[in-house]
Design brief:
Radius of gyration: 31 Å
Strand order of the largest sheet: 16-20-21-28-25-24-22-23
Bound molecules: 5'-O-(N-(L-threonyl)-sulfamoyl)adenosine, zinc ion
Largest sheet: 8 strands, mixed
Number of helices: 20
Structural class: alpha+beta
CATH superfamily of the largest domain: Bira Bifunctional Protein, Domain 2
Helix content: 25-40%
Number of domains: 4
């Protein structure tokens, strides 16, 4: 007999060789129906794998997160089996379950095409109907190498396993795959799946290796759950900033220009300029001073700051000229330290808040680049505040509140606030314990005193100090950092910054790094996704589109209107192309222009305008002056 311990601490006896399925069935038939796998002493077991020793177990049902993983892992095998049936020479890399589904990396012997996904799905369905049992067996390394002798990828994986390790394989029908498990009992349980896309993927993620093809898919326990997920994917596609950025002519990425090096197209640049003016005014009112510093600096500058020893992996390689070594800056802090040092400072001068819209370059791994969300050349709404110790809390809080004001003005939604702390075990942080403790304590106190809820994240701090990061969620479901306030006792030390105190002695200021609304690149990705490309009027690249019904009859009046709008600081465009009226109207619609003004006989006769607002059906006729003041009011209020 075996002693089986349950999560609630109760113990029951079962025959040796009992399975998770058997235990679930002994408890209740309804539990058996929804059980998917189980943990046996923390090892994932399939439903039908015999348990041979006393153990603690936890039954996984189709309601648990782990069950989704098991199902999708089985779906990956199912897909591989189908691929093997259709492409006899196919070999397989890795095929894990991922957050919302699964993938498998495949060397099919031929180039797979999108159309093949349908065929593979059909074959998968056939295997589901065949109700193939999925069974586990264990082999020695030699036997495993023999079994996979035609697949160099699996051989490589097997060879990396420690000697004497028992290797498990899973068999369903004619198909066997190397796998740790667990799996769902039979192919018939993987009924509700869909193959989603095809992509290239280097073997082991290394671009020196052969490129395999990766098929992504997703599997769910019910038809309804699958349908819901597919709907979400469709909606996401509509919101994807990469798609919207192309359609609305916001930005361009091009591999000849360089990965992660985005170009701003006229519409994108217009929005960016509007935002720049907005940030400038906001900062002016909050007492910031604007400076401008170069994108290139000496390597020495970054050695002094500590970037060279702690941040070099994120920097592009150095350049040499005339015996000097230069780097492209990854951050602007060192320059701002030098600006601070350019004059004598007294306690009465502080706080000094230097703001700059900073173009900087970071080496980000090519696999992590994603549209405008993560790029290699970026322009940050940056600032460095130089403060006395007694000013820290007020200045951090003011900076935080300014960020919240900007986020509200932009109509963005915060997902959560993160307090990013250092991980003592990791070498990437400076090592003065006393300064770390002080900085981390101050930020925690400040958040608590102001009832700001936050999550702590160890190891996510900057190398120079802890940060308060404001996180948003993208249409794709990634959580990314939008704004940041960071407390730094290190750089003032490294640059030997001082001010003369009221005691006539030299003191060290403290630095607060602040990213207001991220980089223009990341912000644009967030805005596009949030608004599905339909910017509120104050941000829209084109606010008004004036379209004459007839080029002959109404052109003069249309031009008069357009000029008047531009004189009133509205971004208006006149459509005088030789195209059909319906075509022009539809285009203004797909470009998501907030106001569309069609000019015909009535408007000319009555000296009026007729407008239609984006997303609304009604056409409204009003006097010109009323229209202008309505739109201007909307812009000033940043209405959404
Ligand atoms: C705030 N020195 C500080 C600055 O003073 C700094 O650079 N902090 S940072 O490293 O956290 O970056 C600031 C912001 O830039 C981040 O909060 C994030 O919104 C944005 N950002 C960082 N990396 C990228 C990237 N690769 N692509 C686009 N935006 C990025
Ligand atoms: Zn900084």
């Amino acid at each position: 007999m075996l002693k089986i311990t349950f999560p609630d601490g109760s113990i029951k006896e079962f025959d040796k060789g009992i399975t998770i399925e058997g235990i679930a069935g002994a408890i209740s038939s309804s539990l058996k129906k929804i059980s998917v796998a189980g943990y046996v002493n923390d090892e994932l077991y399939d439903l039908n794998r015999p348990i041979l020793n006393d153990a603690s177990i936890k039954i996984i049902t189709n309601k648990d997160e782990e069950a989704f993983e098991v199902l999708n892992h089985s779906a990956a095998h199912l897909m591989a089996q189908a691929v093997k049936r259709l492409f006899k020479d196919a070999k397989f890399g890795v095929g894990p379950a991922i957050r919302e589904g699964f993938y498998y990396d495949i060397d099919a012997g031929v180039q797979l095409k999108e159309e093949d996904l349908k065929k593979i799905e059909k074959e998968m369905q056939r295997i589901v109907n065949q109700n193939e049992l999925i069974s586990r067996s264990e082999l020695s390394k030699e036997a495993a190498l023999e079994l996979f002798k035609h697949d160099e990828y699996k051989q490589e994986l097997i060879n990396e396993l420690p000697e004497n390790e028992i290797i498990s394989v899973y068999k369903q029908g004619e198909f066997t795959d190397l796998c740790r498990g667990g799996h769902i009992g039979s192919t018939k349980n993987v009924k509700h799946f869909k193959l989603l896309s095809l992509a290239g993927a280097y073997w082991r993620g290394d671009s020196n290796n052969k490129q395999l093809q990766r098929i992504y898919g997703t599997a769910w326990f019910t038809k309804e759950a699958l349908a819901t997920h597919l709907n979400i994917l469709e909606e996401r596609k509509e919101r994807d900033h990469r798609k919207l950025g192309k359609e609305l002519r916001i930005f361009e990425l091009n591999n000849d220009a360089g990965q992660g090096l985005a170009m701003w197209l006229p519409h994108g640049y217009t929005v960016r300029k509007v935002l720049e003016d907005y940030v400038y005014k906001l900062e002016k009112k909050a007492g910031y001073l604007h400076v401008s510093t170069p994108a290139l600096g000496t390597k020495r500058l970054y050695e002094i700051s500590g970037h060279w020893s702690h941040y070099r992996d994120n920097m592009f390689p150095v350049m040499e000229r005339d015996g000097e070594t230069f780097v492209l800056r990854p951050m602007s802090c060192p320059h701002h330290m030098i600006v601070y040092k350019s004059d004598l400072r007294s306690y009465r001068d502080l706080p000094i808040r230097y703001a700059e819209i900073v173009t900087q370059h970071r080496y980000e791994a090519s696999g992590s680049l994603s549209g405008l969300e993560r790029v290699r050349a970026m322009t940050l709404t940056d600032a460095h505040l130089f403060v006395r110790e007694d000013q820290i809390k007020k200045e951090v809080l003011d900076a935080y509140n300014l960020i919240i004001e900007a986020i509200n003005d932009l109509g963005l939604e915060i997902d959560y606030i993160e307090l990013a702390l250092r991980d003592k075990e990791k070498g990437k942080f400076h090592d003065n314990d006393e300064l770390w403790n002080l900085a981390e304590r101050l930020l925690k106190e400040l958040l608590d005193e102001n009832n700001i809820e936050y999550k702590e994240m160890t190891g996510e701090a900057a190398f120079y100090g802890p940060k308060i990061d404001i996180q948003v969620r993208t249409a794709m479901g990634h959580v990314i950092t939008m704004s940041t306030v960071q407390l730094d006792f290190l750089l003032p030390e490294r640059f030997d910054l001082t001010y003369i105190g009221s005691d006539g002695e030299k003191h060290r200021p403290v630095v607060i790094h602040r990213g207001l609304i991220s980089t223009w690149e990341r912000l644009m990705s967030i805005l596009l996704e949030q608004y599905k490309g339909a910017f509120p009027t104050w941000l829209a690249p084109v606010q008004l589109k004036v379209i004459p019904v007839s080029l002959d009859v109404h052109q003069t009046y249309a031009k008069k209107l357009n000029d008047l709008f531009i004189d009133n600081d509205l971004r208006s465009e006149l459509d005088l192309r030789e195209e059909k009226l319906g075509y022009k109207i539809r285009e203004a619609q797909t470009k998501k222009v907030p106001y569309q003004l069609v000019v015909g006989d009535n408007e000319v006769e009555n000296n009026q305008v007729t407008y239609r607002k984006y997303g609304e059906q009604a056409q409204v006729t009003v006097d010109i002056e009323d229209f202008i003041s309505m739109v201007r009011k909307e812009i000033i209020n940043k209405s959404r």
